[in-house]
## 1
Amino acid sequence: MGGQAGAVIGTVMGPVLTCMKLRGLNDLILYGKCYSLRFNEEALRRDRAAVFSAAVGYLSSGAPGFVIGLDVSFLLSKLVNYFH
């Protein structure tokens, strides 16, 4: 039950905290941050691996597979980025 409550709280609080953090930035700095995130190959590789492995884990084993898939993708992306 605690994990589900944490997921719900995180889903609600994530966008709120992001808006609070970005509120004071001017447009130029905000666009610069978005541009640098969009073309960061390491972050894109990590995000794609997380989505793929979470989907495979969820389809194979449900919620535990989802969590294990995310953990495995994190470890593998760190390993790939270390040797890349």
## 2
Amino acid sequence: MVDMDEHSTPYTYTPLTKGEIRLLALSPGDEHDQLQGSFKVVSLERPPPYRAISYAWGDAVLSRKVIVDERQLNITLSLEGALRRLRSKNDEVILWADAVCINQSDLNEKASQVMMMFSIFAKSQSVAVWLGPMTPDDADAFWIMQHFDSMLRELSDDDIEGPQETALAFLDRAHTSPGNCRAPRCRCCGCGQQSSYNGLESIRIGMEAVAQLMSRPYFSRLWIVQELVAGTRLLRTNIGQRIKVFHVPMDMTTRLYCGSHHIALASLIDVIGCYKRLPAFTLRTPWNPAADRVVQLNQLVLTFQSGDAHDVHLLETMFAVKDMACADPRDRVYALRAMTGIDKIASLNPAYNISTTVVWEHLAIYLLTTSGATHFLSPAVVLALAGVSRENSLGGIRHSLPTWAPDFECLSHHSDFKHLAYVFIPPGSAGGFEPFDAMYNTTSNGILQVCGRIIDRIISVLPGSSLAAPEGHMEMSSVEQWIASFLIPWSERADWTMPTQMN
């Protein structure tokens, strides 16, 4: 046991050179021993085997510590739990964790390492997903995942034809053979809250526990999209039936850890696929919204890994993950850059020494001026989004943001509706449904110069009809609001006139 006062000198980072990363060589120890290790500076081009940790930071208070090279490095409670769980009793373990392997107080190093983060996870030997300490319900969640895994191995290709058939086969076995199954116990720890197996009731309890597991903060964290896309390997159809069943894009090396429990992340995705396809009346458990986030996460990983990434654009991906959390709003761009084709755009490279407002300006200019930056027929969608009311968490308007730049931190359901309107109904004019055609040049002081064209002038507007709307039809006010959402000029909704220069 190491004396806590013996290594009280704070750790001082040594600067990295281009292409280098730090790896934490975690020394072996028992459960309650002080965490100790050393840093190994290596080239990312030829790194030794290591595991990358994907986790939620949780409480940002640095209340715990790890002794690195005989110096004290403060860490969060969440990271301490992950390191203790992954530490070996007998052997040194090589790990990468952003909070310690990046000098978080050096903004230049942080930006440089964030640019490399996709490659850091891609070149790792495996990814360890840390969900946090376990609760009593977790044993049932891991039991049901293990139980479903066993059934998948027992089924042959002739027994199933697709996801729906697999879910029903699982349900049939649960219902018809309760006496052949032992009491539900997690294989990791031997724990479980059920004294005996009771068919559908046991399955229901297990599925409810899985739903609770998916409600953990980890699954609402934005950075995990990149970490799982980069760190997991796409399963091919010739290596087993799993890909035929639920099209799981994750291999078995990416593992979930929750206290003493552990299982392949693919097993969680399999159970969610089964859960979603079971008839609602069988389990008497409503579909948990938290599961939708995991389903969407799975779909994003599959899309990026299956070769369809060239059809995925930054703005559309930002809408897909708008409800996921990140501590720094600038990371809404930086966490997605390597997967959405903007990693070569210098103005959008990670830079934590510039304001969020500047990042949003750069992003808006990129979307407005780059051909193919979005899948819309017109860049006018960016200006339309800028016209949507932008309020921060305190309810105040963000006055520092130019009126032509959307607040990408606060993409709401209202702005999502606007976004969809431009997908299905391209912005048009009296000249037809031609794309909005304009050139954009930027000047200083946050002013965007717009060069457009005038098609015609409106001479008069017909008065509204005095006839009552037929029963059963949509109220006219609702129709008008819907049409206005994509036809009324964005400048008018922002209470503007039509100046030559818009600020």
## 3
Amino acid sequence: MKSGAAPNPSPGVDDPDLLLPRCDDDPVVLRLASDETGHAAAGRGQHLSVYVGSADSHHEQRLPMAGRLERDGRTLSFRPTFRFVAGQEYVVRSGRNGEPDQLTEFRIPREVAAAPALVTSIYPSGDVLPENVLRFYVHFSVPMTPHLATDFVALRDASGRTDRAAFMRFKQELWNADRTR
């Protein structure tokens, strides 16, 4: 592990000062150290950042996730710009007043689907479509996992051959808000 950060002895387990999210819209919260009077320290030397991946793949040159860092009394909280993804590994880098940085891994548990995903509709619809159709809408019965669509959705011609160039690959997929289209 690079960067001089010490791994948390219990990766993925909450320590007394670091509260990890339990669902995709929870923040990561770090309780700030107090001075002798019991007031929260001024925040010098205390920091919190969150990265995608595991502690083993963490290094100082990686960029943290985009999000909002807020201080509220005795806590420092991080809420990502885009919600955490269930099943994805994350690592929190936290530091407190001169102590070595700690890396703590966590993962939001996947929800167990009650039923398998089904295609509920496809637009445009019809038996024959022009070759220059630029946009398809495929509606699913349950939310889809991000970054896996092209692994499971294929376009086939009349003879059953898969057209591998039919879908553009984007870093940010074009899902609707609930990831069903």
## 4
Amino acid sequence: MIKKDGTETSTIGETASLLLSTFFPKADRSEKYEVIGPIKRYDRVIDTNRVKAAIWRIMPNKAPGIDGISAGIIRIAWPVLGDEITELVDLVVLPKPGRIDLTNPKSFRPVSLLPTMAKALETIIIKDLENETSLNEFKEQHEFVQGRSTITAIKELYSWSMPSKARNIVGVFLDMTGAFDDMGWRPMLERLAEMGASIRTMKIIQNYLSNREVQLIMSGITKRGCPQGSQLGPTLWKVAMTAIGRIKLDESAKIVIYADDIALLKSAARPHTAFSRIEKYLDELKKWADKCQLQFSGPKTQMIAIKGGVKPNYTVSFGIQHNANRK
């Protein structure tokens, strides 16, 4: 398998370590975010009904964590359930569909199985967060929101483009590299504070994200990592993405988001005008990505002429290392 420096791994252990560092990069502990302020009275009740509802949302036959306790088992044992949450995690590495180059660790996907009780706790955290903020009112996002999908994202793109009287509309479709793996916690927590999340909820999330570990067991040796695959992860990703909504767009520009894919549209009378103006918005997106410790994938980022006769081989620059290629 190919490492970042271009050399190949030579042992199974070296390959496993490369996969571990790719899926679960070490968090930057030098940048701490301290949540300061009084914790207001929590006026919502966490009782057996809420916890039961959170557990009953999980399909009984869903794969359990390393503890082997499925939601079905917990349902049967519900009358005697305790509230202890296990932090054990299991990891399975699978090739991503359609990936040919298996020497690239990004061609694989980790599957982490959180314990069922941890998923139930995450559900309660999510409900509190949604109750305290306007997270679900971020209209640009079409994933992780009930009633929205790829279909609604495509419809919004076309409903904005088709009525436009501009002669040219170009779209830059941006793809993130390791979005869920690499997102920084500090900017996400800062954004939570800006959105009005309570001190209590922020402290719970901060504590929940601290000292997380994943086990890589090979030949009896256990190594470190950070757990993935949670229900809370997509919600926190939504939080980070809401900062994109603060980019001021004029009426001739539009942003549509699906999960970690971003479509930036720009209309103009002339192609070159659209190109020059779209670079300004790309710079804003690059600033957002840098703050969140994220990177765009240059090879996967494309520019498409949605309307007008734009000739091939144009490029639009953003940042130093990325170009959006016109197809």
